[in-house]
Design goal:
Structural class: mainly beta
Largest sheet: 8 strands, antiparallel, barrel
Order of helices and strands: HHEHEEEEHEEEEEEEEEEE
CATH class of the largest domain: Mainly Beta
Shape: rod-shaped
Number of helices: 4
CATH architecture of the largest domain: Beta Barrel
């Protein structure tokens, strides 16, 4: 049974056709006339070899004359990388087709599996056990097979249904663009004092085609958005000022690390440009506005809890490029950016 494990495994998949393609009435009373249209990739079993395999599983059939009305089995085997794909297309009547695909590691496995499936479609009592002696070439007095059609291409096959939910794909065949949007609450320590900040963002990710999806894969992400801090009061002696910070930002995340449970990590380079504002307490006309520029690095984690919904965490380290001081008289400093400032954040978003 060892060398037949592959064919029988393939046949189990193809045999599901019987639920919608039962044996015809002819198979219950005698030999059923059938049409067999078989074509396979180079190096695969020939049409004659396939018919002998079919005959080893059941003999309750005969090849119908070309113009006779009978069920038609259209069988195609094509190569798909290091595997083979066999298509089973049963045409019982005009406009009535049954179509399924089966896959196997070798062309012989797929051909044997299709032979078992055809045998069971003809005769529900057909034996799915491996044949005894090796089949012999088809004798010359048999009715020749119809001229095979060109092998099916990938475009001819119906698309596979989408998976739900959508975890990271194990194989990508084309460049994909993914768009998502979300919001995040940050605590940022790069602006003199720790400022609670609300962040809104939109990102565009490009999933680069790969044959296999390793843990570390290229998936560039371009992210943009705005940051707006809550007002924070900074005291200096008897005086003080209300501090606000607002910026626009861009982030570039060139790679990501895919982990189990639909979790991924990403490293990003980021840049903020905006304003730092301070207004002296009790003096509405006493206020200052400073240009704010900084750059930094950010490590992000994303958990895709649903096909569309994700939760995001972030931690960053920022370098203020402009480090103006804001003070109130008499020479009391209420805002001074540190050489480096950390940030942490948590948020959620929607993947379109």
């Amino acid at each position: 049974m060892g060398r037949w494990a592959g064919p029988l495994r393939v046949a189990c998949t193809a045999a599901a056709l019987l639920t919608i393609a039962p044996p015809s009435a002819a198979a219950e009373t005698g030999d059923e006339p059938i049409h067999v249209d078989y074509a396979a990739a180079p190096g695969c079993p020939s049409a004659g070899h396939f018919l002998d395999q079919l005959r080893s599983f059941t003999t309750r059939w005969v090849l119908a004359p070309p113009d006779a009305e009978a069920r038609r089995f259209v069988l195609r085997i094509t190569s798909a990388g290091d595997r083979y794909v066999g298509s089973f297309d049963l045409q019982s009547a005009p406009g009535s087709n049954v179509r399924r695909d089966v896959r196997g590691e070798t062309c012989e496995d797929v051909a044997s599996g299709l032979a078992v499936a055809v045998a069971l479609a003809i005769d529900a009592r057909a034996s799915a056990e491996p044949p005894g002696p090796e089949p012999h070439p088809v004798e010359s007095n048999r009715i020749p097979l119809p001229e095979p059609s060109p092998p099916l291409t990938t475009d001819d096959r119906p698309p596979s249904p989408p998976k739900h939910p959508a975890p990271p794909s194990s194989e990508e065949s084309e460049l994909r663009t993914l768009v998502s949007a979300g919001a995040r609450l940050d605590a940022n320590g790069a602006v003199s004092v720790v400022l609670p900040t609300i962040v809104a963002f939109v990102d565009i990710a490009w999933r680069v085609p790969v044959r296999r999806a390793p843990l570390f894969a290229v998936r560039p992400v371009l992210r943009g958005g705005v940051r707006q801090s809550f007002t924070r009061t900074a005291s200096a002696g008897e005086g003080g000022a209300d501090i606000q910070w607002r910026t626009g930002f861009v982030e570039l995340c060139p790679t990501h690390l895919a982990l189990p449970a639909r979790i991924s990590l990403e490293g990003c380079l980021a840049f903020n440009a905006g304003q730092l504002l301070a207004e002296a307490r009790g003096l509405p006309e006493a206020h200052a506005t400073r240009l704010w520029l900084d750059s930094g690095v950010e490590l992000g984690a994303r958990w895709q809890v649903h096909r569309h919904v994700f939760v995001a965490l972030s931690a960053g380290l920022w370098y203020p490029i402009i480090r103006d001081r804001i003070r109130v008289e008499p020479d009391r400093i209420v805002s001074e950016a540190p050489p480096l400032g950390p940030s942490v954040g948590v948020g959620a978003g929607y993947l379109f």
